[in-house]
Amino acid sequence: MNREFTEALKNEFGTNILDAVTSRNETYLTVKKEANVKICDHIYHHLDIPLISIFATDERKKDGCFKVHYVFSIGKGDAFVIIKINIDGKSPRYNSITHKIAAANWYEREIQDMFGLLPVGHPDPRRLVHFEDWPDGVYPLRKDFDIKTKPPRVEGEYVYRRVEGEGVYEIPVGPVHAGVIEPGHFRFSVAGEPIINLEIRHFYTHKGVEKLFENISLDKAVFLAERISGDNSAAHAVAFCQAVERIAGIDIPARAKYIRVVLLELERVYNHLGDIAGIATDVAFAMGAAHANRLKEEILQLNEKVTGSRMLRGMNAIGGVRRDIGDKKDEILLKLSEIQHDFRELIEYLMAIPSLVDRIETTGRIYNDTAKGLHVVGPAARASGIDRDMRRDHAYAAYPEFNFKVPVQKAGDVNARTLVRADEVCESIGLIEQALWSLPDGDIKINIGEIPDGYALGYTEAPRGETLYWVMIENNRIVRCKVRDPSFCNWLAIEYAVLDNIVPDFPIVNKSLSLSYSGNDM
Amino acid sequence: MTVEDEVEIMGQRLNSRIKNIFGRSLHIREVDAGSCNACEVEVNSLSNPIYDIERFGIHIVASPRHADMLLVTGPVTRNMELALLKTYNATPSPKLVAAMGSCACNGGIFGDTYASGGGVDKFIPVDVYIPGCPPRPQAVIFGIMVAIDKLAQKIKKTEVNP
Ligand code: SF4
């Protein structure tokens, strides 16, 4: 797959392609800096291949250049194509692709803030990660920035988009919200009840995670990955470990792969139950919420019994898993069959209540082309008719061994997202059962010692959608770890989902997208 | 002992303390000062039907102006510092502050960096520290109890005998 693809691109773009390296399912094509827009546009629009991440590295020590990587994912054939450009450290500018590919918007602004690389021609070149009080010319992910530096606060102003007209007024919300949720700022422009514009402003919880990865040991890095988006701990940890394992070129024991599937699916089940509870809460249906929350709590307690942690933490390690769960098999199976029974009943009951369905049907619609254009991922994408799932398209761990369906809906509204989640809960329970029934014997972890220099992608389908890591290791230390949480993609979509909805429906739309602030801000 | 029994016993103790010191109920405002969201998951767990802390007289309120206590999570990021201070100042005195989770206690894994402040007590006075990553709901209930005892002492100290 990769070879054909590279040949086709070479024919199309000739000398613009400087170099091609393939390892595993990743092909890295270094192209001329000036050709980035042309080539990315061709891959994205002409070949119809989604752009799933953009990130930079600071390799000035080696060759005086920054590099920008564009990651494309070919689902059919399980391949990744990474277009790479070199940017001279002395003139850190390159052409923006956002006017061609809307999904590039935040990535380019993030790179601008963290590396100081200017995307020339970006339609909205405001800051993204840093606030107005951050001084100019200070870029945390450059190698010459020390993580302990505390840049002074300076005067500055953040300009929001303004919507003007008779009867239009603004509602600012956050960062501290009324509910127990993470901090972020929302600015609504409304005319009466309907929302005519929403601007979100995030990065309140920016904790310098990517820089931190470069300053800690590999073992500790797994713990950090678990704490990027707390309720997706397992998905992040597995994605990170897989990246490192791919660099090391090792295959972990089969038993560990099966256990990872169990952990990842337990995580999906409790997250989806929580989201369904949240939707019931936000339509003021307390009883439905109580039922769903009770089921979620049962999974959290099961997690604790099986792994020692309600959030499934401390289980994954580079080379496998740290604790066997084989002796808890029957307990897990029994509990899950009870939960599945109760859950089915609950969903039937919820979906038969007209006042609930009325609130969620046609609410918060994300149209298929919007979802595609912004590269929305996870249940939100599948509810808008995008049939993508990393577990199937870029299968990892033990997923190729199991049967499962990827539920897809067309409507793109809150109702569709709820139905997708409900179906996924049942599929997940099915996956856990398959994994436990056929749990292979053997070790749960292999020691890998020194890790050779290199780089690789690691990825999982987290409850929120595709989670992507790109790790680069030199001398057994991380020199770059790019994390792309699914929420980083999906936050952009909420600005579209709320249009023409009324303000009181915003919480439901927000909940139905189940967005992580911490995973986004890092 | 099941979780339910544990919670029942702790809850009764909590309830009697709240009655003694506050008369009826304790109002808590939660502030996420840059957590990873797992601490929020556990704060939300406190309201699920298993723990259901409302029945012991604890309300999670929407505004700091209604709160007796702030429950702060996260290491206090550079970008949340101002919001945390504003929330603290908006809370009427006497007030309690509980730092929930390793991050809030001392920065945790995020430490003290360009973006992370290294713990809540660097910015506002903290009355109790609830360790854990995240702390289990039982630990949070216990932490709240310790905080209430502290308030009782605080009030005694400031009382003037006639
Ligand atoms: S203490 Fe742990 S669980 Fe809580 S916010 Fe910090 S990292 Fe997350």
Keywords:
heterodimer; A: 522 residues; alpha+beta; Beta Polymerase, domain 2; Cytochrome-c3 Hydrogenase, chain B; 19% strand; B: 162 residues; 5 helices; binds iron/sulfur cluster
> What spatial form of chain B do the alpha-carbon principal axes imply?
globular
- Could you give me the name of the CATH homologous superfamily of the largest domain in chain A? Cytochrome-c3 Hydrogenase, chain B
| CATH fold-level label of the largest domain in chain A | Cytochrome-c3 Hydrogenase, chain B
CATH architecture of chain B: 3-Layer(aba) Sandwich
Helix content of chain A: 40-55%
- The end-to-end distance of chain B, rounded to whole angstroms, is 48 Å
What's the multimeric state?
heterodimer
Average residue-wise pLDDT of chain A: 91
Order of helices and strands of chain B: HEHEEHEHEH
Largest sheet of chain B: 5 strands, parallel
The strand line-up of the biggest sheet of chain B is: 2-1-3-4-5
Kindly report the average pLDDT value of chain B.
Answer: 90
The interface involving the most residues is between:
A-B, 50 and 45 residues
What is the helix content of chain B?
A: 40-55%
The number of distinct structural domains of chain A comes to: 3
Q: Please, how many domains of chain B?
A: 1
What does this structure look like?
The complex is a heterodimer of chains A (522) and B (162). Chain A is α+β, with helices and mostly antiparallel strands. Chain A is built from 18 helices and 15 strands. In chain A, the strands form five sheets. Chain A has a five-stranded mixed beta sheet. In chain A, strands 8-9-10 form a three-stranded antiparallel beta sheet. Chain A is globular. The two termini of chain A are 34 Å apart. With 162 residues, chain B is an alpha/beta fold. In chain B, helix 1 runs parallel beside helix 5. The site of iron/sulfur cluster has 12 residues of chain B, from helix 2 and helix 4.
